[in-house]
Amino acid sequence: MAEIIGLVAVRMASKRLPKKAFRTIAGKPILQMLVDRLRTSGLDDFIVCTTTADEDKEIELWCAEKGVKCFCGDAEDVLKRFIRCVAAHPSEYIVRITGDNPFTDFISMHEMFIKMKETNADYARQIGVPLGTACEIVRSSVLEELHRRSRTPELSESI
Questions:
Q1: How would you classify the pairing of strands 91-98 and 136-139?
Q2: Contact between 159 and 79 (Cβ < 8 Å)
Q3: Annotated domain spans of the chain
Q4: How far apart are the first and last CA of the chain?
Q5: Per-residue pLDDT reduced to its tens digit, 44-95
Q6: Nearest residue to 69 via CA among 38, 110, 94
Q7: Phi and psi dihedrals of 76, rounded to 5?
Q8: How do the residues of the chain divide into helix, strand and coil, expressed in percent and rounded to 5?
Q9: How confident is the model at residue 156 (pLDDT cuts 50, 70, 90)?
Q10: 3-state secondary structure (DSSP) of residue 13
Q11: Three-state secondary-structure class, residue 151
């Protein structure tokens, strides 16, 4: 079992900015920028977590082409998608990373993870970092407990 893996929540459907994961910055897709940074982030592994919706096949194909692990799960229940991904890729901790934030701060993430382990915390999130750079870390067992207690998929939409 890995100690810590990143789960990248990404999908093509967006009311405000459709297909934003493949929008480009300096000619490079946002998801590619994030994946390039994840490869040197120090995480044990990372998995792109998308949905089984038809429009997200593009993400799955892109991952296969780039040699990136991809998990396709529930389109409406992000928490369920993460739980099933962790079942397939066991890890003690997971980092929730959003696929449209290519500038996630992995240095402060590591500092936060060290502090989590020192204090035996179950959950941590970055504060005081610029918008679009934060991530969250949660113990996998706590995520599973949260899923057992959740009543509706809508409550886990923005996990």
A1: antiparallel
A2: yes
A3: 2-156
A4: 23
A5: 999 999 999 999 999 999 999 999 999 999 998 899 999 999 999 999 999 9
A6: 38
A7: -100, -30
A8: 40, 25, 35
A9: low
A10: coil
A11: coil
pLDDT band at 157 (very low <50, low <70, confident <90, very high): low
H or E element that contains 115: helix 106-119
Q: Which residues contact 130 (CB under 8 A, 6 or more apart)?
A: 103
- 15 pLDDT higher than 90: no
Q: Cα separation of 40 and 78, whole Å?
A: 26
The dihedral of CA 51, 52, 54, 59: what is its sign? positive
Specify which residues 125 forms β-bridges with. 136
Strands 123-125 and 136-139: antiparallel
Selecting from 3.40.50.10610, 3.80.30.20, 3.90.550.10, 1.20.120.790, what CATH number does the domain 2-156 have?
3.90.550.10
Asked if residues 78 and 155 have their Cβ atoms less than 8 Å apart, the reply is no
Tokens of 108: 């402060």
